[in-house]
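Working notes for the structural subgroup meeting. M.R. asked for a predicted model of this chain before we commit to crystallization trials. I am recording the input and output together here so anyone reviewing the notebook later can reproduce the run.

Input as submitted:
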Amino acid sequence: MTEKAGQPDIVWGMFGGNNAFFGAIARACIYQPISPEHPFGWGLPWDEDPTGTGLCKQNIKLAETYLGQPAGSGYRKDFTKALNDIVTFAQGKQALNQPFDLYVSSYVQFFDNTTDGCDGWTFAHDRLSTGKPKLVKGLRTVINENVQQLNSIQADIIKNYQIPAHTPMNPNFRVHNSQPDSTFQGHRFCEQGHTFEDQYYNQDVWLWNLQYYDEKTGSEEVGVPTTTGGVEFMAAPPGLDVTQGFETVMGDDTNPAAVIPQGDDVNTQQYGFGWTARPFHPKYPGHTALANFFIQQMRNDNIPGVKPTASTAPTPPAPTLVCNGLTSNKYVTHDLIKDTISNTFCPAAVKQGPISQRYNQGTPEEVVITLTGPNGFKPSLTDCTNYLLGAITEECDTSSPPPNYKGGGTETIGNVVYSIQPQNVRQPAAKGLQYGCDSTYKVVFNEYTVWGHG
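Returned structure, recorded in token form:
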């Protein structure tokens, strides 16, 4: 891998979990079937092993001892050495003063350890299991605590890390810690409201479980059998002899210190590449969430070349409409003000920006239309007509007879104000459409009287 690294400016890594027995614990405490007849000797499950003789508790004890050792030993020593190896290799490759940023991502907790459903479920994967080992709260809590302890150690080491001496010394080497655990909140195993099947197939669970893969057919096996006690567990593919171990690259565990069964066959009970590649690793939505988290952290750290967040226009303030009403007896005719807004005022405002214009001067329809706003502001034709005509004209005075008369008002959007103000006092608008005619016979002529106002 190092031969292909080239001279990168940024390296991201997530490592150290299997050194801390994460894989060994998953195998011994979660995936191995438990049965008195089981031929491979994994021992008692976590919740039935008060003396710690089972391989689950033995591997947990190894993890706790390894993580609990002081500086200069145990995990702290090995993790520091890993950082030194990476940085030293980069020092030999980078040009003088070329930046190099190493980011180490800590792990996410794998379980919601507060829910009840998993207390009765097992992820053990073949028909030898009698519904054990169960994912009880205590086991989930212990596993989560180991993850948190490892994360804390990584953060502490990186906080106090000193770049190894090198000649010439490049001052632009930095090592960072990333803590993305919060991004998986609500997306772990055993979340509230999730079913047993969800632990395998729900895309809202962002971690892979151990699912069978039939290399002959290329199909996932979806089997959820139930024991006589009503406990659901995953079954092996039909026809598979589950009494025989299948040798895989996990046969002796990636951690040589892990405790595995001894005897004629020490191979594990995992079947195929699915065990080694996917369980407890992120699914696509999990990778996406992690990637977004990592990119944002690099933005916050002002790493050169990281694209900035796409700019988004601020949410416009909500419009506030104030209607004058008709009680002042100042109003204009709907059709006339509509024509003035659409064909005269708004086309001018789009070109000029804030303006105030008086129309129909010297008539009952005299009106002042005004647009105010910040320097340089020019409305779109759509906004201008929507606020003056759609809002002030059409939404005001809708219930006061007659609807053909409009008293105007103001529409305020942030620091922009549209206004329609009729100028002349008129007959009450309620009488605005009073009219009539009369014809009287006068012997030699007819007398006609026509009256009205508006």
